[in-house]
Amino acid sequence: MPRIIRGASENDIQRRMREAEEYAAEHRRRKEEAEVRDRSH
């Protein structure tokens, strides 16, 4: 969970949370692809 900065606007907080979710989803997808590659070889 990203730290919420005091005084940050609601839009700022929502944008940061969305970016963190996108980063996590991308990371998870790459990990799954790597596992599939490992199994196929």
Could you walk me through the main structural features you see in this protein, from its secondary elements to its overall organization?
The longest helix has about 30 residues, at about 10-40. This protein has one helix and no strands. The mean pLDDT is about 85. It has one domain (about 1-40). The protein is rod-shaped. It is about 75% helix and about 0% strand. The chain has one helix at about 10-40. The chain has about 40 residues and is mostly helical.
Strand and helix layout:
Elements (H helix, E strand, L loop, with lengths): L9 H31 L1
Question: What is this structure, in a nutshell?
Answer:
Residues 12-41 have a biased composition (Basic and acidic residues). Residues 1-41 are annotated as: Disordered. The protein is an all-alpha fold.
